[in-house]
Amino acid sequence: MNRKYILVAMVLSASILSSCTKEKEDNFEYKEVSASQVVSDLGISSSVVTFSITAGNGTAPTDVVALTGSEIDLPAANSFSLDGCDFDGWSTSFNGTPLEKDKDGKQKLKVEENTVLYATWKVRTVRKAMGAEKVPEDGKLVIEEKNLTEWEFKHLKELVIKGYTEIDLSKTEITEIPKGTFNFSEYELAIPGDGHFYYMDPKEHEKLNFDGLKKITLPEKLKKIGEGAFTECILLEEINFSKTALEEIGDGAFGACPSLKTLTLNEKVKTIGEEAFDGCPLTNVTEEDPDGEKAFVIPNSVTSIGDYAFFNAEFTKIEVGEGLKLVRRGTFAYCSNLTEITFNYNGIDKLRINPNAFDSCEKLEKILYKAKEGVDLPDDKLGEGHTIGVDVEPTKAE
């Protein structure tokens, strides 16, 4: 191989001549030169490939000096991005079609002359919906991407205000819905011609110019609902976690959702935060079970329920799994339709109930304990000297 070609390869790969300072040493004079100048001085034809990130944010890749006629690998989007878009590769023209990709999604370029390459972008679902002139008649938005960026989570609320009433996240692989994603508790809206501001409140709903979130479909990998994520979603009627990996429901996650009547928990949820469903008219009464004979079930996996978590719910019957050892202050307070609650006993831990756990549960008639076959119930089920604040004697379930 010709020595000058070896030298060129060394120059291009290491860029050792790109930033020298002028100084004399051992009778040699060093001066700043570019790689392309060295190539030219050696009589070799070269070209420069320059990258433009168009509307993106960040730093464009460094220019590449390559032998004319050679093939180079094109860089990925490691140092730049565009909110609401995915990098779709490089194009030889502005807003042009991306160059062909191999099976691994990588691009190459045969360098024939000095070339400017432009970043191309694929618009993601949220950004596309924000830019759309009209909302579909069904008001449904299906998120196609596997993950959502922080920017996209922040703009989901804007899409609800725009008119989307149903958000489908089932195709995503998100594990958390962050704090306040659909929280409308502090939302203010100026009413044209009225001159006043109105907080989003069920009684004032007719004054708003958008409907609000009515339905949310959750992804299988979801593990956490953040604090206040759905606060005051006043038209949300149902939430179903049965097909998710949910482990934690944050404080106030569904607080003040006055239309939320149906809740289905999964078998993995461990923590239900303070006031998680405060003010939600949750019920076990359905069209199939109009008398509410089938109890609402809190699964064995649940080990912690926060204060006032089910405050003012409309359950008639509740069955609590054996994982819960403490019923906190106001957990079921003002559940005015509650007549019966059953606690499952694991044979080891005694249940503790805060004296205010059942405040104003005026119809509560039965507090039952149920144990697995072969497990004896203790005589002192609540612990010595402990009371439950209501005039109901805990008894063994039949």
Q: Which CATH C-level class of the domain at 3-123 is it?
A: Mainly Beta
Major beta sheet, specifics? 5 strands, parallel
Q: Residue ranges: pLDDT <50 for 5 or more in a row?
A: 1-24, 188-203, 381-387
Q: Roughly what fraction of the amino acids lie in strands?
A: 15-25%
Q: Give the beta-strand count.
A: 29
Name of the CATH homologous superfamily of the domain at 3-123: Listeria-Bacteroides repeat domain
Could you write a compact summary of the structure shown?
This protein is mainly beta and 398 residues long. Helix content is 10%, strand content 25%. Mean pLDDT is 83; it is low at 1-24, 188-203 and 381-387.
Secondary-structure blueprint:
Layout: H1 3-14, E1 23-25, E2 28-30, H2 35-41, E3 46-52, E4 57-58, E5 64-67, E6 71-73, E7 80-81, E8 85-91, E9 108-110, E10 115-123, H3 125-131, E11 140-142, H4 150-162, E12 166-168, E13 176-177, E14 188-190, E15 197-199, E16 215-217, E17 224-225, E18 238-240, E19 248-249, E20 262-264, E21 271-272, E22 296-298, E23 304-305, E24 317-320, E25 326-327, E26 340-345, E27 352-353, E28 366-371, E29 395-396
Parallel strand pairs: 3-10, 11-12, 12-16, 13-17, 17-19, 18-20, 19-21, 21-23, 22-24, 24-26, 25-27, 26-28, 28-29
Antiparallel strand pairs: 1-2, 3-5, 4-7, 6-9, 8-10, 14-15
Helix pairs in contact: 3-4
